[in-house]
Amino acid sequence: MLDLANQPIRERYNHLLASISSERFLKMQGLGNEVPFFICPFKPEEFKEMDQLYRELVNTLRNDKGIRVLKINLYDLTVELLKERGVWDKILKTEKTITNLELKELLQGVLDPENHLVPAIKKKMDDQEFDVMFITGVGEVFPYIRSHTVLNNLQSTAKDKPTVMFFPGEYRHSLEDGASLDLFGRLHDDKYYRAFNIYHYQI
Questions:
Q1: CA-CA distance, 111 to 107, in Å (whole number)?
Q2: Which helix (H) or strand (E) holds 126?
Q3: Distance between CA atoms of residues 171 and 185, nearest Å
Q4: C-beta of residue 192 within 8 angstroms of C-beta of residue 35
Q5: Which pLDDT band holds residue 158 (cuts at 50, 70, 90)?
Q6: Rg of the chain over CA atoms, in angstroms?
Q7: What share of residues in the chain are helix, strand, coil (percent, to 5)?
Q8: pLDDT at 99 over 90
Q9: CA geometry: angle 185, 190, 192, nearest 5 deg
Q10: Share of the chain above pLDDT 90, in %
Q11: pLDDT tens for residues 8-20?
Q12: How far is CA 14 from the centre of its chain?
């Protein structure tokens, strides 16, 4: 199988557009009763190119294909939640006076995926008509939010429409270790096996 993840950006874009705009993808066919989660991995150094690809993809899906995309940027959502809870300014003030570990523990408590983050995503899902959900900002919210915990907690909430997570790293599968989301290609401890690599998706 051709490894599309290592192909030029334009080839990846063409695959993503063809796959996501297909009736089979939008109707979540052929998933074998698995949750409709897809990972779009990319090299961290390709961030700017992937950001352009993402914007072009959203615009083309909307304007040329009539496909509505719900865009969830985890970093933007994090800031939104912190401001809503009245702790944003406090965190900015205390960030320089506490250790990284203390900051991480503080943010993890305020942004717990099960109790805070996923309910906020669900509210956006309820407030907007959409055909597919895109999740970005994964690298920006590390380490206080981990991608596999977001997906684990979204499983019961985001099962009626396909979700694509744009992931700066690798989505590995092996018989020995199962599947894992390797953020930045270095962190190998995020076990998650229920998503599909969108570059392996066949229309």
A1: 6
A2: helix 118-127
A3: 9
A4: no
A5: very high
A6: 17
A7: 45, 20, 35
A8: no
A9: 110
A10: 59
A11: 999 999 999 999 9
A12: 20
Q: State the chain's mean pLDDT as an integer.
A: 88
Q: Taking a C-beta distance cutoff of 8 angstroms, is the pair 131, 69 a contact?
A: yes
SS3 4: helix
For the question of whether the overall pTM of this predicted structure is more than 0.85, the answer is: yes
- For residues 147 and 75, the answer to whether their CB atoms sit within 8 Å is no
Hey, what amino acid is at 94?
T
* pLDDT tens digit sequence for 142-154: 888 888 889 999 9
What residues pair up with 17 in beta bridges, in sequence order? Answer: none
Q: Which two tokens stand for residue 172?
A: 């590995």
Instruction: Look at the chain and count its residues.
Output: 203
Pairing relationship of beta strands 187-191 and 178-183 according to DSSP bridges: antiparallel
